[in-house]
Write a structure and sequence with these properties.
about 190 residues; six-stranded mixed sheet; 11 strands; globular
């Protein structure tokens, strides 16, 4: 049995959206969703362009890859497009991109661009996770960087810890809700 967190008779719904160039940030979003589901929340991962409104969600996590000290354009546009709705619910941001193990060993604050967006929507927190760069990366800049920084610097345990901290904060501070034991049974085969 798992413990589901219910608000108004429905499991709390969390949207996780991301801006990703090569898929690494999307994979972090998917890991966040798996951990949040394990914590009893209903988490859905969608690219920003697939989200028409955020009103169906109780909380939102927005992630973006960092490229040349800029947050991914799709993540920025998502925040601007849904500004008013984001201000009305709990929001967290994450960034991915350092191509070394620094994000696993120390808290890296958001870049100024992300910090300004966080302040604008009243985001509750931010995490920076390591990035991923394939040795055969395409594009002049990526190929040049891959010569010295190719690798997968994402730390799944760091991502999972952060997801559990987001879940704990939601469960402690969300509007009235009831924790219920799930009685889902496996159907006999």
């Amino acid at each position: 049995m798992t413990q589901d967190f219910v608000q108004g008779g429905v499991r709390m719904r969390i949207l996780i959206t991301y801006g990703s160039k090569l898929g690494g940030t999307r994979e972090i979003a998917e890991l966040l969703a798996r951990v949040l589901r394990d914590e009893g929340l209903a988490a859905e991962v969608l690219p920003p362009e697939a989200v028409e409104h955020v009103r169906a969600y109780d909380a939102v996590i927005v992630g973006g890859g960092l490229y040349a000290n800029h947050w991914h354009r799709k993540a920025r546009r998502f925040v601007h497009r849904h500004f008013h709705e984001l201000r009305e619910r709990p929001v967290w941001f994450f960034s991915s991109g350092p191509l070394d193990d620094s994000a696993a060993h120390e808290r890296i604050p958001p870049i100024a661009q992300v910090q300004a967006l966080m302040e604008r929507v009243g985001a509750r927190g931010h995490a920076t996770f390591g990035g991923r760069l394939e040795p055969d990366a395409r594009g002049f800049i990526a190929r040049s960087m891959a010569r010295e920084h190719a690798g997968d610097w994402r730390d799944p345990e760091q991502v999972a810890r952060w997801a559990r901290s987001v879940a704990a904060e939601l469960m402690e501070t969300a509007p009235p809700r009831v924790a219920v034991e799930s009685t889902r049974q496996e159907s006999p085969r």
